[in-house]
Structures are given as structure tokens and as C-alpha cells.
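Progress narrative, Year 2. Work on DUF726 domain-containing protein from Nitrosopumilus adriaticus advanced from sequence curation to structure prediction during this period.
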Amino acid sequence: MRPIPRISTRGYYDLSNGKTLKNNPYYFYPKPDFKKLINSKEITIMIHGLRNDNAGAVAKVILAKNRLRKLGYVFPIIGYSYDSNTKGAHLIKHAKHALAVGQIIAKKNGRNLGLFIEDFKKLSPTTKIRLMGHSLGSQVILSTLEYLSKNKQNVGLIEGVYFFGASITEDVPSSKKYGKILQNIVNKKIVNHYAPSDEVLGWADNEKYVKGPLGLNGAIGKTISKYHQKLVKPKNHRFASYAAVLSSFP
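Result:
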């Protein structure tokens, strides 16, 4: 099997506390596949959630690719692989700490993914870039958009954003700060696939680990015009379940 093309920051952050270990921006694997992306009409980057090692990250790209192909999407789909398999994430007693560390690492990765996007757009200015994020991947996307918003030339740089089981908070699309960032940096639309039946987000909300996850009941307040949301009924919180109920893309 050919390796799945991916941008990676594996080993850049400490899995027990989120500290930065390496200041490198990112690496791309396998390198020859990077050149093949240049001058594509568009590309989609899939960003996984918490508790994914490198193999998990690859599996999520394959899931996204298979589903999008079925929906008639023909452009390249690549992965973004980051240190989300934080220590103790699978144990209830360590869950809060593991999630907190995951959130720190996800926020820091905004710079890494942002740098990749800026670098890639310099080489391939006409390529449209779409970002798909599952669970904690929504935080990576939000932090990436925040990083990109620091440069006025990045207006409309991202074509579309697609959230699945998002763990960012429900006030993001209506907040003054983030609403403006989303509206400015995303060219066409932000689509949030939310599920009141999502057991992991429901638990995180009840335990107050995430106060009002955007992926649970959708957005609150008056949202920006580019924001749309779709009520979905996945079997559970896993990305495979969200992919299975995805009915259209982009």
C-alpha cells in the first residue's frame, strides 16, 4: 500500500504536559507526494482528534478519502498528524488532564498548520484549501485560522471549513473575536456537523471538561453569515460514524 500523504508535527510536543520540544514548523511525508499537490485545483486536509497515534491519523485520512470519493469529490485529500495521543487519555481518572494537554497541543499546532498553508500557497497560489476537523481537530483548525488572521494578506485564504463532533465551544461562530476571524479567513463557508446524541461530547459537557461543545447542540447567539450547521445522527463520537452520515461535500 502506498503511504498516505500527510503533514506531521509528531514528536514536537510533550505528551504528558504539552510543552514544546521542537520548534520545527512541520514535515511532509512522503516528500515526492508534496510536489504532486502543487497546482491541484484544490486539496482537503483532514485533522484528527484526541487519542490518535500516527496510525490513527492515517486511518482518519483513509476514512475521509473513501467517503469523499463516494460523494464525488475527486481532489487530493491529505492528513495532518499531531501529538494528540496524550498520556492517560484512555483512563477516566486521567481524562481531564489528558484533554487539557491535548487542547494545549492542538492550540500550538495552529501555528504549524498555518505555516504549512502559507508555504503551500506561495508555491501553489491558485489551489483552494479545505480543512476538515474531527473533535479536537476543530481546535487545531480554529487556532490555524487565528494564526493566519495575523497577516492581512490571508483574507479568504481557506476555501471551506468542515467540523465533525467539534470540541470547541458553542459561542465561537457568534463571538466577536472568533466570528470575525472565521468570516475573514474562510472564503466560502464553515459547516458544523453537530449531534445532540454524541455520547463523548455529552459526557465532556456534563463533566464541564468542555463547556457547551459546538458539536453537541450547534451554535448559540447570532452567528456569522458564512456559518452553517447540519444536524446529524452518527452512531457514536468516532470519525467513522460521522463520515458514514456525511451526505454532501464540499
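Residues 95-123 form the longest helix (29 residues). The chain has a mean pLDDT of 96.
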